[in-house]
User: Fold these one by one.
Assistant:
Number 1:
Amino acid sequence: MNIILLGPPGAGKGTQAQLMVARYHIPQISTGDILRESVRKETPLGMKAKSYMEKGQLVPDEVVIGIVEERLNDSDCHSGFILDGFPRTIPQAEALQKILQKMEKTLDHVLNIEVDPEELVRRLTGRRTCKLCGAMYHVIFSPPKDKDLCDRCGGPLYQREDDREETIRMRLKEYERQTAPLIQYYQTKGLLRSIDGIGTQSQIFDRIVQTIERRSF
Ligand code: AP5
Ligand code: MG
């Protein structure tokens, strides 16, 4: 099953992707996570991406497309993948189509998680992530037992650099300008499924499962 998770910053793409990995046993490919890891390790890719990410801007298409092409060719993607945060521009979507054609694969579902802007800001400003295992929390909506430590592995929790209010505003603007046009793009291809992103994490997951499994039969 080959899936794209579309949606603005803070819509819950990462949260839902983790739940989907557990149910469908296919990998999550988060370009944001790959880029953050490269920044942390100070690799050449990380050096290139850092200044864009800090400002809440998109990293240039050619950089991100290369990463995704390489990752999709890994053996764990043979039976499917969940793209989280890619594509994010029309040129990225067109490049993805070419990559998949080369691999003789097609997309099964593009799930667009819809959440209003005020809720997005609330979710992003309260997000905390585990440095070791990547588990996600929210200080109000899904707080960890100890505010500084991960319930799952005991690792330290941190706040993402780009989750400051000013950077969040820029990310939302970039989303409207560059990523929202993908909704129409995938609608025209008949692949788009809208998911109401308001509710508890498990309610939203149930909606995703129903949508995917209804369309698979
Ligand atoms: P990326 O890491 O992809 O960030 P994003 O798209 O801005 O999305 P987020 O990860 O912030 O949100 P999410 O939808 O995953 O929500 P989450 O599940 O965490 O990209 C970061 C940067 O990298 C970009 O700005 C860009 O610079 C660069 N980049 C990445 N991909 C790129 C690309 N393809 N091209 C160019 N540049 C690229 O949830 C958020 C919070 O809400 C959490 O605290 C969570 O616990 C909470 N929450 C989740 N669900 C619920 C719920 N139902 N109710 C209440 N709270 C909830
Ligand atoms: Mg994410």
Number 2:
Amino acid sequence: MSLKLDCRQLKKEELLKLKEKIKKEALQPVLAIIQVGSVDASNIYIRNKRKAADEIGIATTLCSFPEDVCQEQLLQKIDELNIDPNVNGIFIQLPIPTHLDEAELINRIDPKKDVDGLTTMNLGNLVSGKPLLTPCTPNAVMDILEQLNCDITGKKVVIIGRSRLVGKPLFHLLLQKDATITLCHSKTENLKEYTLNADILITAAGTKKNLITADMVKEDAIIIDVSIIRDEQNKLHGDVDYETVKEKVTYVTPVPGGVGQLTVLELMKNTVQAQEIQKQYTLTKKR
Ligand code: NAP
């Protein structure tokens, strides 16, 4: 690996910049987090988000509901948060219990407060080339590429994974940067044929460790591994066989310590951006 980027350090530095911006511009962003049930993993993720927010001057409010909450109650809460002028961002901690209609809940969020960027409206804005708020994980990938000073224009980019959360939004973010993109998925035949040609390879399959081995990547490629796979020993892995691949390529993100480091940062950035969008919207409405 000839390029170096410490994502933990980057997160620290970027959070500090955001803190300074919030202070300098006397912003008072507020993020509402909706939690259903009390799964350990969700508790940890929420604690991390609230801690980061608190450190940089974003207030959080936690709206907790029991595991058996009904759809109507959640929709009502989202409606309340949508019209509350003191709330700038609304975030639903996923996954939520299966009796709930996740898509309906997400789409009930005002797109101007949709800090996860997952409403159909915001994904549509992205596809139409006029993004408002974009999803946090793809944003983290774009930040890493920017930090690496990676020239995306005209480059061959291969994305593995076509989910609404990662692959699809990433496709459009990269398209806006003039990349030539191939989107692979579980039905793609001969994956290696595509990965071997990639100047930039972004993997988000999450099905098995070492899906991507050194013989599948181009020398000097840049590889961003989004996946988080937990093995029987509770150890975390990505899609990429990191130890062998890192010897061949220009850069590959580690797991843990890579993309995952930046998703909380992206949520904080989106919350500040949401407040700016709302201010602008109020001003335009008054004119
Ligand atoms: P997902 O909804 O399960 O999507 C996985 C995608 O990968 C699907 O499009 C699937 O194809 C494709 N795929 C699966 N196995 C494949 C294979 N062997 N070859 C080619 N394509 C394959 O998952 P997701 O929500 O996008 O998340 C993907 C991974 O990223 C997971 O490990 C998740 O934990 C991780 N993640 C990490 C972060 C972070 O902060 N670092 C954030 C979000 C997600 P089909 O569409 O054909 O099924």
